[in-house]
């Protein structure tokens, strides 16, 4: 039962983190498939154990729809919740969806559905009062978003004033802000010439442009908008058709894309999905599926919503395109916690406008399943149009004379320490801790990040430079940096040096015990476990001198994590570093 409790906590934290990356920072690190799997696992566990002591009333079910707003923007409250959509890559799920709808509506036959494209941009909410645009916001957490009104004013396809005489008193028009593929290409060409970082895809470019603090920059990005729905709809006439409401919105001056169908036949919906999939590469904007909605507004209201999804709508998403390429090498990377990750490099391929050169193989199990060799011909795709993955090895194209079998290393590629296999994590890891150069550099970057003790202004690039110039070997070295040392690093001037030293001093006094434990990089000790450890020991020294018996009392710590912690704190070099950090930092305990 301890494991179940820890699993629920960990899933909640993971989902909040990935919501933040996707909705707030527009920088997802997992595919939609993986996210949906995590969310489904959480919902199933919470439903199963909601009446048990594992889920007290003080811990409600996860109902967050999107992400948190960025602090640089003011809050904007939606008049009605801005829900997300249930999604699937299985077109056959439309049959199950239709059956559920019929069941909720007392087996009504011939339900009419409205289907349109699922645009891959940034969802926005436009609030108009007496015909004038009063505010514009991002989805945010579904209830509160970021106020982006000034930047929305720069998009020519969004009217500041509703056209016509017969206008609604209050209305929320919802739609997608996006960037055309052609404009995205020109933007990246410009960034390349100026030596700036390139955008990974049109969605991130659109989201980044819409969140500019300077509206003049947003205006130069040539963003577009299509309306796909509404929230508050305060209009004197009751329009019971979603399709007719969109037609009315179009009459009021909002762009609505012309490719849609209204039908009561599932075969028509499947045909529309297949046609959209075939068209997507020829469109000048990105779509990642279609959206199917019950057309009757009365039925929508009756169906309502569950968790963060409306019951009356579903997104049918496309699979990523597969592209053939050839493996050139396999490297083994050492992570922050010592985990060894095999990475496959291949001849560069362009998938949906993004050049892909490598893909993670995750662990030994994946390598063995694929039976991958250097010089193999493989098919590569982007899971959820984001994460590069190898789908298949094309055995029929394997040249026996050319290929080379890959063997997982027995010793760390960075420090040559003998690797340990964790049966719990199904991974090999290096137990050397701070003594391992590759592992240590990643620990140092994490230690100074927002997730660690949060030394603002230092940044990953400057930390790597400090490591290169031998000024930074352990976390302790952060606190002996001075303006003279920083002045020796290219790219760090006097002004930034003063700022960094000031922020190091501030960070020393703002370290919570759970973040300190998490920043050490112990295998299996993520944010949730670190909080449990912090709540149990309430002191860094007590944790450092713990034993297996005490650790076994903590929720979520089984034999494998227990062993991982003990291996870490028995390392003399690790103990030395941690004791020095305890003296340097003002580590506070905050119950979480």
UniProtKB/TrEMBL annotation:
Gene encoding the protein: ligA
CDD domains per the UniProt record, alphabetical: LIGANc
Binding site for Zn(2+): 412, 415, 436
GO molecular function: DNA ligase (NAD+) activity; metal ion binding
Family: Belongs to the NAD-dependent DNA ligase family. LigA subfamily.
Organism (species): Buchnera aphidicola
The keyword Cell division belongs to this UniProt entry's keyword annotation: no
Alphabetical list of PROSITE patterns matching this protein: DNA_LIGASE_N1 (PS01055), DNA_LIGASE_N2 (PS01056)
Regions crossing the membrane: none
Reactions catalysed: NAD(+) + (deoxyribonucleotide)n-3'-hydroxyl + 5'-phospho-(deoxyribonucleotide)m = (deoxyribonucleotide)n+m + AMP + beta-nicotinamide D-nucleotide
Ranges where the NAD-dependent DNA ligase N-terminal domain occurs: 3-452
Coiled coil: none
Name of the protein this chain belongs to: DNA ligase
Active site: 118 (n6-amp-lysine intermediate)
Record GO biological process: DNA repair; DNA replication
Function text: DNA ligase that catalyzes the formation of phosphodiester linkages between 5'-phosphoryl and 3'-hydroxyl groups in double-stranded DNA using NAD as a coenzyme and as the energy source for the reaction. It is essential for DNA replication and repair of damaged DNA.
């Amino acid at each position: 039962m301890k494991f179940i409790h820890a699993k629920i906590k960990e899933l909640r934290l993971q989902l909040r983190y990935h919501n933040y990356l996707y909705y707030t920072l527009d920088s997802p690190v997992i595919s939609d498939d993986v996210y949906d799997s995590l969310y489904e696992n959480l919902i199933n566990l919470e439903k199963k154990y909601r009446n048990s002591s594992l889920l007290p009333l003080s811990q409600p079910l996860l109902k967050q729809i999107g992400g948190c707003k960025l602090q640089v923007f003011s809050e904007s409250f939606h008049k009605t919740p801005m829900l997300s959509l249930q999604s699937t890559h299985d077109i056959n799920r439309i049959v199950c969806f239709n059956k559920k709808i019929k069941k909720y509506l007392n087996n009504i036959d011939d339900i009419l559905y409205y289907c349109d494209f699922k645009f891959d941009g940034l969802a926005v909410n436009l609030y108009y009062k007496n015909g004038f645009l009063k505010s514009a916001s991002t989805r945010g957490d579904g209830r509160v978003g970021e106020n982006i009104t000034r930047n929305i004013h720069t998009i020519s396809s969004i009217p500041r004033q509703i056209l016509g005489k017969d206008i609604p008193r209050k209305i929320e028009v919802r739609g997608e802000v996006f960037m055309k593929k052609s404009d995205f290409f020109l933007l990246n060409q410009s960034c390349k010439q100026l030596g700036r970082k390139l955008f990974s895809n049109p969605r991130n470019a659109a989201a980044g442009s819409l969140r500019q603090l300077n509206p003049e920059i947003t205006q130069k990005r040539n963003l577009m908008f299509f309306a796909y729905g509404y929230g508050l709809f305060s209009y004197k006439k009751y329009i019971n058709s979603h399709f007719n409401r969109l037609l009315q919105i179009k009459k009021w001056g909002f762009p609505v894309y012309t490719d849609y169908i209204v039908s009561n036949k599932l075969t028509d919906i499947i045909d529309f999905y297949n046609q959209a999939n075939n068209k997507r590469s020829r469109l000048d904007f990105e779509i990642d599926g279609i959206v199917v909605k019950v057309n009757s507004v009365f039925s929508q209201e009756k169906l309502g919503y569950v968790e963060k999804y409306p019951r009356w709508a579903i997104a049918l998403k496309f699979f990523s395109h597969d592209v053939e390429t050839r493996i050139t090498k396999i490297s083994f990377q050492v992570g922050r916690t010592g985990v060894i990750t095999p990475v496959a490099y291949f001849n560069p391929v362009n998938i949906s406008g993004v050049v892909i050169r490598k893909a993670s193989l995750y662990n030994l199990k994946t390598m063995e399943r694929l039976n991958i060799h250097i010089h193999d011909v493989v098919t590569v795709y982007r899971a959820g149009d984001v994460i590069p993955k190898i789908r298949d090895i094309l055995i029929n194209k394997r040249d026996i004379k050319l290929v080379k079998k890959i063997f997982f290393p027995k010793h760390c590629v960075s420090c040559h320490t003998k690797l340990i296999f964790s049966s719990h994590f199904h991974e090999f890891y290096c137990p050397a801790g701070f003594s391992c150069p590759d592992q240590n550099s990643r620990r140092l970057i994490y230690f100074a990040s927002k997730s660690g003790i949060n030394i603002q202004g230092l940044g990953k690039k400057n930390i790597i430079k400090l490591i290169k110039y031998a000024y930074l070997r352990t976390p302790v070295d952060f606190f002996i940096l001075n303006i003279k040392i920083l002045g020796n690093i290219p790219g760090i001037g006097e002004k930034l040096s003063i700022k960094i030293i000031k922020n190091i001093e501030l960070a020393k006094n703002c370290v919570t015990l759970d973040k300190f434990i998490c920043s050490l990089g112990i295998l299996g000790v993520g944010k949730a476990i670190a909080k449990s450890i912090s709540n149990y020991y309430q002191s860094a020294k007590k944790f450092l001198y713990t034993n297996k018996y005490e650790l076994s009392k903590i929720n979520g710590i089984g034999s494998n994590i227990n062993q991982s912690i003990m291996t870490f704190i028995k390392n003399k070099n690790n103990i030395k570093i941690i004791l020095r950090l305890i003296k340097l930092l003002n580590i506070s305990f905050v119950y979480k």
